[in-house]
Amino acid sequence: MEKDKGGVMAKKMIGITLVVLLITVTFGCSTSDVQLMTTLITGGASGELTEEEVIGGLTEALRTGAERAVKKAGEENGYWADGAIRIPLPPMIRKAENLLKMAGFGSRVEEFHRSMNRAAEKAAPLALDVFWDVIRGMTFSDAWGILNGGDRAATDYFKSKSYDRLSSLLKPLVRKAMSEVGVTAYYQDIETKIRTLPVQILDEDLDSYVTGRALDGLFLLLAREEEKIRKDPAARTSDILRRVFGNL
Q1: What pLDDT, in 10s, does the model give residues 132-177?
Q2: Terminal CA-CA length for the chain
Q3: Residue 22 domain-assigned (yes or no)
Q4: Could you say which DSSP state residue 46 is in?
Q5: Which residue range(s) make up the domain with 78?
Q6: Are 229 and 245 in contact (CB under 8 A)?
Q7: How buried is 212 (Cβ within 10 angstroms: 0-12 exposed, 13-18 middle, 19+ buried)?
């Protein structure tokens, strides 16, 4: 029995070695890449961590990070209360802000500013379906690059695969949300007032501005969650996350 078991383990290790060599030749991995890949696939000396578990762990990490980021962005004051992702006033209004306040439009500007962020909060949850599609389309080469990449490798992967699609999807939804929470009406009032002030008028595509800033904030939140999972054991909330990321 021990001999048979040893033979099975030997065959398994030969198979793993061949897989690693094939990936090395195909993707041009460095020596450190090969060492890390072997550790991940074999689970170090224990031999318990399989390639499927590595991919499963990374998939769960992506899903967990995306869910947390979208939940944070989509809750009440998700954008407004976080100075790092709060959407600032558009350049034209920032330029005229002091004059608008002097003209008695301070509260109008404040309401407009808040309502822009409310619109982003309403639209953010719709990004999840796009993130799921990105995860489902991930190849082993993609997964390896993310796992062996920097602290923002997963975020950068999500962004490269989803930004244009998210922008197209969210822009009309942001426009609708802005109408619902009063952004459009506030903006029209402010723009009318600005035209009476001694400032240069700049054309603003408000839909594109809010959508772009909303996505920037969402990816910043995603980067935060990714860093937690990579560096903080407490953020690895499942056995597979602890096993895979504990080997890095």
Answers
A1: 999 988 887 888 788 778 889 989 999 999 999 999 999 998 888 8
A2: 34
A3: no
A4: G
A5: 64-240
A6: yes
A7: middle
